[in-house]
Design goal:
Largest sheet: 5 strands, mixed
Strand order of the largest sheet: 6-7-5-8-9
Low-confidence stretches: 27-67, 222-240, 410-418
CATH class of the largest domain: Alpha Beta
Mean pLDDT: 76
CATH superfamily of the largest domain: Reverse transcriptase/Diguanylate cyclase domain
CATH architecture of the largest domain: 2-Layer Sandwich
Number of domains: 3
């Protein structure tokens, strides 16, 4: 079934009523020169035309492309009138009557067709939170997201997001030879086709990263393939699993299936961060705030994971809140014994010892190493760093130093935020 854009019905009615044939214009804005700029300057001094634009400055997609018009805004280039249909599409009208009342009819219809733009507001709020978090300003991040509902007066339709559920940020990995700008239309269509096959995933909107903000329903009544939630003999959740944890498990399962489908069907590699499961629509700011938390923890402390959910590693929640100055002071003190950098073999050894609860025999089994080989690696770590990973305090301190040193290096190197 073909899905028409929300402005199609209003545009068709307008063209039938006034006998005009518009040309649809897609894609990024183009430079404007000569008469086009003169038309904008003339419009700026024309009160009638300024009112026709809804009080917005009558700048076009030229003049440096400094801003985007709202749907329903009109501007003139030479003999052509243009109207903004949505945030990415406009239409050119040759031979349109000069009466501004004619244009205002389509403006009103277009503005009604795209309201409310709750999807775009949610994506923008998520991006605002990620930018603030990238600067280490967590207080501003939380205030921004917690107050977002009142600030933007957003009205999400009650049937738009099936509760309970969690917000998901899916980031795509493009090759160095691939340009976001040239691949974006193709990428969108592929991702949207795959997303439509998942009944529990709602694609909310796109960011330029490229990434998508989505929402996954965690309805306990909906069975999820591969869900191995423990239950008591009476059929209810086990004491070890509350409803929110069960919801997180279900959300993770849906997201993992989505990533697998994107890789197999669309040949796109992606990672996903998952926020806290929220059970009421009015608590969406909390869902976005925890999503930002999860995104930052994912990039800083668990970059190799395909899916990272908020709250699954509470210690990382604590570490993410430590300021840069405190991290630098800790690393400076930790380096007094020796260098903290570990090669892949030694890093694997440290991780194996922690997984084995510092048991040498169990660590050797997990790492598929002879016990003597493992002992040689442990001695190499001690000689280089000054820490003996057979001792709990030393192993914990070295593990924390590895995490924070990598995070500190990421910040200092100016790597982009998620």
């Amino acid at each position: 079934m073909q899905v028409h854009p929300p402005w199609r019905e209003a545009l068709d009615a307008f063209t039938r009523a006034f006998g005009v044939s518009p040309r649809i214009v897609d894609g990024p804005c183009q430079p404007r020169v000569g008469a086009a700029v003169a038309a904008d300057l003339a419009a700026a001094s024309d009160p009638l035309r300024s009112a026709d634009l809804g009080g917005a400055p009558p700048h076009g997609p030229g003049i440096g492309c400094a801003a985007r018009r709202e749907p329903g805004a009109w501007w003139c280039e030479g003999d052509l009138w243009f109207v903004q249909l949505d945030w990415d599409t406009s239409a050119a009208f040759p031979g349109l009557p000069a009466d501004p009342a004619v244009r205002s009819l389509l403006s009103l219809a277009l503005r009604g067709s795209v309201q409310p733009r709750w999807q775009e507001i949610l994506v923008q709020q998520a991006l605002n939170g990620l930018r603030a978090a990238a600067q280490g300003d967590w207080e501003r991040t939380r205030r921004t997201l917690a107050d977002a509902r009142d600030a933007v007066r957003i009205q999400i339709p009650t049937d738009a997001l099936r509760m309970p559920g969690a917000f998901v940020w899916v980031e795509f990995h493009l090759g160095a030879e691939q340009s976001v700008g040239t691949l974006r239309p193709e990428l969108r269509s592929l991702v949207e086709e795959v997303a439509e096959t998942s009944p529990d995933f709602r694609l909310i909107g796109w960011a330029e990263t490229p990434a998508v903000l989505g929402f996954v329903t965690a309805d306990a009544s909906a069975a999820v393939d591969g869900d191995e939630t423990e239950v008591d003999s009476d059929g209810g959740p086990s004491p070890e699993n509350d409803e929110r944890m069960i919801g997180t498990i279900r959300v993770r399962s849906v997201v993992q299936q989505l990533l697998a489908a994107l890789e197999s069907d669309a040949l796109l590699a992606a990672q996903a961060s998952v926020g806290r499961v929220v059970d009421r629509l009015e608590t969406w700011p909390d869902g976005l705030c925890t999503l930002v938390d999860a995104c930052c923890q994912h990039v800083r402390f668990a970059p190799g994971r395909s899916v990272f959910a908020w709250g699954e590693r509470p210690l990382l929640q604590l570490l993410a809140g430590i300021g840069n100055e405190r991290v630098a002071a800790f690393l400076q003190a930790a380096r007094r014994r020796g260098a903290l950098t570990l090669d892949p073999d030694m890093a694997e050894t440290l991780q194996g010892m922690l997984q084995a609860n510092l048991n040498i025999s169990e660590a050797a089994r997990l790492l598929y190493l002879h016990r003597n080989t493992l002992m040689n690696r442990i001695e190499r770590i001690r000689m280089q760093t000054g820490y003996d990973v057979r001792q709990f305090d030393d192993a914990l301190l070295l593990w924390l130093a590895q995490l924070l040193a990598r995070s500190d290096s990421d910040r200092l190197s100016g790597r982009p935020a998620p």
